[in-house]
Amino acid sequence: MLLSIRVLTTLLVLLLVTGCSERQQAQTPDVPASRYDLIIDNGVVYDGSGAAPVRARIGIKGDRIAAVGDLQDAVAERRLDAGGLAVAPGFINMLSWATETLIEDGRGLSDIAQGVTLEVFGEGWSMGPLTEAMKEEDRERQTDIRYDIEWTTLGEYLEFLERRGVSPNVASFVGATTLRIKHIGYEDRAPTPAELQGMRDDVALAMEEGAMGVGSSLIYMPAFYADTDELIALVDVAAEYGGSYVTHMRSEGNRLLEAVDEVLAIAEATGAAVEIYHLKAAGKDNWQKMDQVIDRINAARAEGVDIRANMYTYTAGSTGLNAAMPPWVQEDGFDAWVARLRDPEIRARLLEDIETPTDAWENIYLASGGADNVLLVGFRSDALKPLAGKTLAEVAAMRGSTPAETMIDLVIEDNSRVDAVYFMMSEENLVKQIAQPWMSFQSDAAALAPEGVFLNSSTHPRAYGNFARLLGKYVREEGVIPLQEAVRRLTSLPASNLGLADRGLLAAGHYADIVIFDPDTIQDNATYLQPHQLATGVRHVFVNGEQVLADGVHTGALPGRVVRGPGYQGADGGAAR
Prior knowledge:
Elements: H1 2-27, E1 35-45, E2 54-61, E3 64-69, E4 75-81, E5 86-89, E6 91-93, H2 101-104, H3 109-112, E7 116-121, H4 132-141, H5 154-164, E8 169-172, E9 174-175, H6 176-183, H7 193-209, E10 213-217, H8 228-240, E11 244-248, H9 256-270, E12 274-276, H10 290-302, E13 307-311, E14 316-320, H11 327-330, H12 334-342, H13 344-355, H14 364-368, E15 374-378, H15 392-399, H16 403-414, E16 419-423, H17 427-434, E17 439-441, H18 462-477, H19 483-490, H20 492-497, E18 514-517, E19 538-543, E20 546-550, E21 553-554
Parallel strand pairs: 1-4, 1-5, 6-7, 7-8, 9-10, 10-11, 11-12, 12-13, 13-17
Antiparallel strand pairs: 1-2, 2-3, 5-18, 14-16, 15-16, 18-19, 19-20, 20-21
Helix pairs in contact: 6-7, 7-8, 8-9, 9-10, 15-16
């Protein structure tokens, strides 16, 4: 009996000590937690919420932000003096075409130098799912950047990038164009019930692999052939996984308002959040429509529709000469298109169509105002590369042909769509769009470097300057929006739109994607004639806690990861990361 009392007494003491210890641990700071791998000192913190900046220190442990606050007495392996500069979450590029350039050069330097830490792909075309025939076609169309296609699904491609090593994080929508090519090809027809179900199944797989939703690009072939019901059928699947719909609308010009109505109809039919890629009113005759577009979006948002948009900060867009030619001539794919261009009878009809205003298709050539406003920037052929940087009018004059004839001949000779810059938007509208609180930003360009294979072609200056231009020209110089609001639009707004719970803010528990920049000097340096020039003013960039830019110089670090959407069905049970 005495032994039992002693045992009970001992157990009671142990329980009391344990309880006291647990209470002490809860009431006093955990000493190991105050030890950080890095503390960023002396920074003006713009946390991404849109709140006014504050002086604070940021403590980083591993790949996460562990604390934001005073942290004066905290212990750290390393301290970085921010020198009184702005410290913000890493910027999110809502439309990136770095899908191939990151294979060539994983640094993504033109974007990293601007503070971009997440590249989002998927404007209609995505890097999966693919068939063997699609892989072969892609290999044949490769130009200066050559690579083997070691993946089939979209998720496998993103994991391929992560394994290969990239500096920025990467994410993607699944492309409606890619799905149509896989199941229907390049034909101008509706899918059969079996084909549509196959497309829907592929959307489900992509969402479970971590896609952000469905992306479309409806002025291009074969996406042009898809009707609204087809898009609704695809977006409906993405919505079941919490994904959204993002679109290069069916028109950005003559039927701009009708195109916005289609986006709203898809939102109503599916319940999905919807987003408009690179919102614009293309063509001088359409510039006055932007006020109506903004009014329609604001009215829909007031009624509870989750509709928003993104944009680049230039009055010129960039695409191929295919955007200056009607859909009928491009049916059945690239080879069939070029074959038609060689046919004299078809050529005669095409020349008339190119020069005739219409609402039936999006004629970017006429929207630009003519050949003087079309700058040629990208060729496959070494013989034609010297023409990069010349206007279509200049090349037509050199050849003694009309602009329309010159476009046709260049596509045939280069065996490509030939990349061009089209001047077609107004500065006044650009400012109106930037002022909208639901507007985020994107480059609509690859991530390049002013060296090596990238110098073989010209490009649009947005590839090097889009985000710096926002912060320099439109925030500092013109005061269109305050700096803290610009940071919100580059960080927490797109992160929230993508359904990312732990990126886009400088807050404890979030991934340590961080940019340190000088608000007084940040600027774009790229021009239309000399685009391969890095932006300046960003000093340091961290991705997942690793420094990729130090004093404006790339460190060589490649810590980028796949960022997955809300439908992800991975081994961890499905949270986006």
